[in-house]
Amino acid sequence: MKVVVYGAKGKSGVEIVKELVSRGHQVVAVTRHADYSAPGATSTVDDAGHPDKIAAVVRGADAVVSALAPPMTDTDQIVGLTDRVVEGVSLAGGKNSGPRLLVVGGAGSLYVTGQDGKRVTLRDSGYLPAEWLPIVDSHIKVLDNLKKNQTVDWTYFSPAGFFEVGPRKGSFRLGKDDLIVGENGKSEISYADYAIAVADELEKPQFRGQRFTAAY
């Protein structure tokens, strides 16, 4: 399988590239930096600024992973970046003959039991610090745009509440729209184990046109 990974230099992107390469897939690691290289992968430079260029990069691939991250001073950049990736994938064939698209998303749109006992999104639960809300809201906009899209074969992957550097345990639980919480009361997953779930979904799709999540 040929997989193009945008944002290959980021915390999640690095692990996703590593996991896919370890499984023998042909990986194209896309970053904004010409000096970047990933062992076992082909490196390509693109800033996801133009759908036509994105289409040229992803054409002929089986799947595209968007692991892009915005600057924290302007989190809504992730909305435009993802929209352009979607358009590029659409230009490269879209649902008819183009690659699948898996978007590394956020956890804020997952559902939890709020402080009043009602089912609400994590964003609206009152549990999140105010300084996290801009990036949470931006990721929610990305998911909303994907849900409206009919041109590409997309999947949106929400991480656990805490998405961190950590060990590769090799085991976790999958869900769809509800935050997964462990016996310790925490919702967490490492980038390495998240990457396993990404590769599993690309190899054996379960969540086409849907969002899913993973956590310990």
UniProtKB/TrEMBL annotation:
List GO molecular-function terms, semicolon-separated: oxidoreductase activity, acting on the CH-NH group of donors, NAD or NADP as acceptor
Where does the NAD(P)-binding domain lie?
7-205
| Ranges in coiled-coil conformation | none
Per the record, a Pfam family? NAD_binding_10
- The name of this protein is NAD(P)-dependent oxidoreductase
Native source organism of the sequence: Terriglobus albidus
Tell me the lineage of the source organism.
Bacteria, Pseudomonadati, Acidobacteriota, Terriglobia, Terriglobales
